[in-house]
C-alpha cells in the first residue's frame, strides 16, 4: 500500500529541505566563500537567487519520490470512439478508448496508486473501444469504483460492469443495455436525381447495408443477426460483471433508468455524491484518500479532434449512428 497522510507529507518536506540546503551550501561556496574577487554583496545576491531555484528543484524531486495521492481518477466523457485511426472525415470529440486505456495502465503501474476511480459521463459509443476500456479496468490491480455523473448508458454501462462497484446520483441516467445497427438509405434520393448504383463485389453480403441500394430480406436478416450476437455478448458481460441473472438484464429491454430506480433493480450499487464515493474508497483502503486525475499522455491532441462527421449519435439518450465508408452499416452500444 502506498504511504499516505502525515508520513508522506513529512517525507516530502524533508526531501525538499534537504535539496534546498544542498543548493544553499553550493551557492555559498561558489559565489561567496571561494571567489576572492567577488564582493560580499554580490555573493549574497547570488545565494538569494539560488535559494528559490533550489526550493523548486527540491519540491519537484520530492513530488516524484513521494506523490501525495493514492487514488487515480480517469474520465470517460462523451461518445466512446477510437479516433487514433484517422480517416478522411475526423471523428467527433469524445472519449478516445486508446487514451483512456493508457491512463488506466499508467495508473496501474504507478506504485503510489492503490485504487482506481472511473468517472463516467457518456451515452456509449463504439462496441470494441468500449470493451477495451472495460477490460483495462478489470485488469487493474486494486479496488475499482465507477462513478456515474450525468449519463452512464450503453457502452458506458459496459465499462462500469468491469469495475467492482458502480455509484450514481439520483438523477443520473443509467442503463440502455442494448445494441443498435444503423444505416442511411438514400436509394430513393439517388433515383430522383438519376444516380445509379453499380458495385463489383465478391461475396454475397459484401455490400449489405450500402446506402445507395435497398436491403433484401436476406441482407436484413444477416445484419440483424450480427446485432443480436453483439447484444447477447453485452448481456452476458453485464450479467457476469454485475452478478445479475441474464434474464433480468434482458428484461430491461435497453431502457434507461434514473439513478434511484437503477439502484432498486440492481443496476447500481449505491446512490451518492463524489464525497460519498471517496468515503467508500477510504473504507476499502483503510486510510484517507487523495485523488489524482490522470490525463492522456498525448496532452491536448484528443481535445482538439473534432468534426462534422456524425449524422446522428448515441445510445442511452437516443438515436445514433455514423455512416461507415466500407459497407454503410454501423454497430454501437
Describe the structure.
- The protein has 333 residues and is of the alpha/beta class.
- The chain is 43% helix and 15% strand.
- It has ten helices and twelve strands.
- The chain has helices at residues 5-33, 40-65, 97-109, 127-139, 155-160, 187-192, 217-242, 246-250, 259-264, 274-285; strands spanning 71-77, 80-81, 95-96, 115-122, 144-153, 165-168, 173-175, 180-182, 256-258, 270-271, 291-293, 330-332.
- Strands 1, 4, 5, 6, 7, 9, 10 and 11 form an eight-stranded mixed beta sheet that branches.
- α4 (127-139) links the parallel β4 and β5.
- The two termini are 36 Å apart.
Strand content: 15-25%
Mean pLDDT: 79
> Under the CATH scheme, which class of the largest domain?
Alpha Beta
* DSSP E strands, number: 12
- Helical coverage, percent range: 40-55%
Classify the fold: give the CATH topology of the largest domain.
2-enoyl-CoA Hydratase, Chain A, domain 1
Can you identify the CATH superfamily of the largest domain? Answer: 2-enoyl-CoA Hydratase, Chain A, domain 1
Largest sheet entry: 8 strands, mixed
Computed CA radius of gyration, to the nearest angstrom: 27 Å
- Give me the strand/helix succession: HHEEEHEHEHEEEHHHEHEHEE
Structural class: alpha/beta
Number of helices: 10
Residue stretches low in confidence (pLDDT < 50, at least 5 long) are 85-91, 300-326
Task: Give the number of domains.
Answer: 2
- The gross shape turns out to be elongated
Amino acid at each position: 500500500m502506498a504511504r499516505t497522510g502525515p508520513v508522506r507529507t513529512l517525507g516530502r518536506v524533508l526531501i525538499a529541505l534537504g535539496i534546498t540546503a544542498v543548493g544553499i551550501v553550493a551557492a555559498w561556496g561558489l559565489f561567496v566563500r571561494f571567489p576572492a574577487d567577488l564582493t560580499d554583496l554580490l555573493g549574497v545576491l547570488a545565494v538569494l537567487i539560488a535559494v528559490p531555484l533550489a526550493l523548486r528543484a527540491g519540491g519537484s524531486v520530492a513530488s516524484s519520490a513521494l506523490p501525495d495521492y493514492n487514488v487515480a481518477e480517469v474520465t470517460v466523457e462523451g461518445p466512446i470512439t477510437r479516433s487514433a485511426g484517422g480517416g478522411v472525415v475526423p471523428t467527433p470529440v469524445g472519449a478516445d478508448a486508446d487514451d483512456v486505456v493508457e491512463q488506466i495502465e499508467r495508473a496501474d503501474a504507478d506504485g503510489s496508486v492503490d485504487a482506481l476511480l472511473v468517472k463516467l459521463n457518456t451515452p456509449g459509443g463504439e462496441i470494441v473501444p468500449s470493451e477495451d476500456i472495460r477490460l483495462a479496468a478489470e485488469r487493474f490491480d486494486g479496488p475499482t469504483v465507477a462513478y456515474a455523473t450525468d449519463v452512464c448508458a450503453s457502452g458506458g454501462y459496459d465499462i462500469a460492469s468491469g469495475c467492482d462497484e458502480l455509484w450514481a446520483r439520483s438523477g443520473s441516467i443509467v442503463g440502455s443495455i442494448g445494441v443498435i445497427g444503423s444505416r442511411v438509405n438514400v436509394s430513393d434520393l439517388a433515383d430522383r436525381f438519376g444516380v445509379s448504383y453499380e458495385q463489383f463485389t465478391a461475396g454475397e453480403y459484401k455490400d449489405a447495408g450500402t446506402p445507395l441500394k435497398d436491403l433484401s430480406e436476406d441482407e436484413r436478416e444477416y445484419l440483424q443477426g450480427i446485432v443480436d450476437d453483439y447484444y447477447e455478448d453485452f448481456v452476458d458481460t453485464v450479467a457476469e460483471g454485475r452478478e445479475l441473472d441474464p434474464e433480468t438484464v434482458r428484461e430491461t429491454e435497453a431502457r434507461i433508468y434514473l439513478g434511484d430506480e437503477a439502484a432498486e433493480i440492481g443496476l447500481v450499487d449505491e446512490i451518492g455524491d463524489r464525497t460519498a464515493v471517496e468515503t467508500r474508497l477510504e473504507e476499502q483502503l483503510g486510510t484517507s484518500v487523495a485523488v489524482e486525475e490522470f490525463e492522456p499522455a498525448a496532452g491536448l491532441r484528443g481535445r482538439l479532434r473534432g468534426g462534422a462527421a456524425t449524422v446522428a449519435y448515441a445510445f442511452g439518450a437516443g438515436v445514433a449512428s455514423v455512416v461507415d465508408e466500407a459497407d454503410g452499416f454501423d454497430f454501437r452500444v
